[in-house]
Amino acid sequence: MYVMATAGHVDHGKSTLVRALTGTEPDRWEEERRRGLTIDLGFASMTLPSSRVLSFVDVPGHERFLGNMLSGLGPAPIVCFVVAADQGWQAQSSDHRDAVAALGIDAGLVVITRADLAPDRVPEVEAQARAELAGTGLAAAPAVAVSAVQGTGMDVLRRTLDSVLDAAPPPDADAPVRMWVDRAFSVRGAGTVVTGTLAAGRLHRNQRLHLLGESVDASVQVRGLQAHGTDAETLQPANRAAVNLRGIQTEQLSRGDVLLTPGTWHLTDVVDVRRSTGEGFEDAPQAVTVHLGTAAVPARCRPFDDGHARLTLDRPVPVRIGDRLLVKAPSSRTVRTGVTVLDVDPPELTRRGEGRVRAQTLAGMSAAGDLNGEVLRRGAVRAEALQRMGIELPQELPPQVRGLGEWLVAADQVRRWADRLRSAVRQHLEADPLSAGLAEGAAADHLDLPDAALLTPLIREAGLLRESGRVTEAEARRGLGTAEAAVAELERQLGQAPFLAPEADQLTALNVGEKELAAAERQGRLLRLGDGIVLLPSAPARAMKVLSQLDQPFTVSQARQALGTTRRTAVPLLEHLDARGWTRRIDSSRRHVVR
Hints:
Layout: E1 2-7, H1 14-22, H2 30-35, E2 42-47, E3 53-58, H3 66-73, E4 78-84, H4 91-102, E5 108-113, H5 122-133, E6 143-145, H6 154-167, E7 178-187, E8 191-198, E9 203-204, E10 208-212, E11 217-227, E12 230-232, E13 234-235, E14 239-246, E15 258-260, E16 267-278, E17 287-292, E18 295-303, E19 308-318, E20 324-328, E21 337-343, H7 354-363, H8 371-378, E22 380-382, H9 383-389, E23 401-404, E24 407-410, H10 411-431, E25 438-439, H11 440-447, H12 455-461, E26 464-467, E27 470-473, H13 484-496, H14 504-509, H15 514-522, E28 527-528, E29 534-535, H16 539-547, E30 554-555, H17 556-563, H18 567-579, E31 583-585, E32 590-593
Parallel strand pairs: 1-3, 1-4, 4-5, 5-6
Antiparallel strand pairs: 2-3, 7-8, 7-15, 8-14, 9-13, 10-11, 10-15, 11-12, 11-14, 16-19, 16-21, 17-18, 17-20, 18-19, 20-21, 22-24, 23-24, 25-27, 26-27, 28-29, 30-32, 31-32
Helix pairs in contact: 17-18
């Protein structure tokens, strides 16, 4: 399915054309039919020769209803631009052209209507329309002359509509939903229903969505779906969708609200933009209205130069880098400026001259987003945050950017953090050689990390170790401070008698307590077994060489004699060997070496 909006001057036959194509009256209000004047948006659909379903959003052409026109044109991916043969290009033709250009719509066609009233003028009007549309996305659009009343050219128009859809870029069904609401009403027995153009993404029953607007910010659930009056379990883009919502009252809703896939859009009320069409910013009023989707949001404009400005909106909106917005003065009935969004999370500007510097920065920014620039500016940013802003992440990151878990970090920042972490751990251990290391929380605070989860990859990056909630050096090279001599003496004694663990009074005489023993064990210099037994780390392997020479199985007494030690040492040593799977108990008194 596809969605197309009409555009063109009032009384040029847009609604008549839609009625002739679809068989549906797009003017929904009695006043519209009585006055013969489209005031609000109208909706109708048809099946093309290819069996495609095409939905029309018919917009008002009169200047007094420019806001309604923009609400219909804003979400539409394709436009049918109408110019009457008997009147030619008119004032609102230019307004609608400017709106099409400002919103960046570049798919569609031109229809010369009322050809029966001025057949001789058709070539002239087509040439005039092409000249006026030069520089817009419709400059090379196909043109068809028709008489909706007599039916002349309508078959050609239907075939041309098919060819236009062939050339239009396919909608992205995997994209997150951003469906702008153009109507909200209540249906007896069903409750709240909103309608809009589903330009991308999918909708399905029971789906959870975020509903955001001027008076609403709520989680809602899809109770039911319809397209063209037919119930549906799932809706694909592009489509006109009627969504029955659970969890919201109709009175809370209005045109300009938006349905979003939760957690996938960056919500912002400040954007930096570049002029893409229309007037520059140097003479822009401070108070403006920004149109996006079906929304019209009051905003303040701060010009940086003629081509760049900052827009501060009255409320947060879901907007991405590269989005096209339309700016006009609040009381104006004409389009002022079309802009392209460059930054949806711009830096604060508080000093004199920063606006001028910001203009220079924006001049070098891409409308597609700059991964390097965004990461370098922030130092570190979550990958999903950049995706919400509209920046695509490449399969292979550029060399200036490192991926640390779910974060993207400037390579220079990673090096600075790693250097600071190594320095902090070294200073901590030099001040307290017996310490198990710098506490993880203290390490994260020292680096001022935006997320403590970054500490894990930074520990690896710095060549350090994490042990029991502490960060320490990977190599046992730092000594034990005042306990160094005592531990060295223990190592000497155990080197001479590897299975004679020192008694408690020997440790006391050396002034070696639990803290000193724990520090030596962390450095791999001693091994502590149960019941206060202290040996060298090599003792288990040396014991196995002795025990493997015994007749198997053997008893504790036989092992004690072979090792030349006491039962106090032999029992915990054998239990340690059991735990490592090197020996195995057969019964309460015997065990054997595992071959």
